[in-house]
């Protein structure tokens, strides 16, 4: 797998340090803002490693759940039409939700998820994303209630894998984040956003 990586962007040590910083920010903000237990909702499957590392650093009692959204298939670009394919199990009515994402790209998936959590009755929604690609943003992100946006690293406009992120369900187990060599996905039909 390592031969498929063009460049390592963030090592496991750099990732660990940044996760601790994000958890410290969340601990401070969550302890100051609410008496209710927050619900951390991971976006499956890409955020599972980040979510696990993050919640182990949260010093408050929390609940954890997952939601699954489909938008990539086996291409390198989102199809632009995310759909929720696996519902929450926990009740989030009147609760503060911290939505944990692996990467925010166009913002389409994130916007859909925020609206979904709002429709489920969440009193506020914060977003904690491991990677952020603001250069690719197509929609503005509107948080709910007293929600805040927490970003780990700003990501270049490259296709990245590792630390839970994949290409065609491979590379999730790399302990770092790297740029995937184009030869690994060239010839794969890319899913283009629908007009």
UniProtKB/TrEMBL annotation:
Identify the Pfam families for this entry. Answer: Pribosyltran
- Localization terms from the record: Cytoplasm
Q: In which pathway does it act?
A: Purine metabolism; IMP biosynthesis via salvage pathway; IMP from hypoxanthine: step 1/1
Q: Name one GO cellular component term.
A: cytosol
Entry's Gene Ontology molecular function annotations: hypoxanthine phosphoribosyltransferase activity; magnesium ion binding; nucleotide binding
Entry cofactors: Mg(2+)
Q: Which reaction does it catalyse?
A: IMP + diphosphate = hypoxanthine + 5-phospho-alpha-D-ribose 1-diphosphate
Q: For this protein, what is the EC number?
A: 2.4.2.8
An example GO BP is:
guanine salvage
Keywords for this protein: Cytoplasm, Glycosyltransferase, Magnesium, Metal-binding, Nucleotide-binding, Purine salvage, Transferase
The record's comment on protein family reads:
Belongs to the purine/pyrimidine phosphoribosyltransferase family.
Name assigned to this protein:
Hypoxanthine phosphoribosyltransferase
Natural source organism: Spinacia oleracea (Spinach)
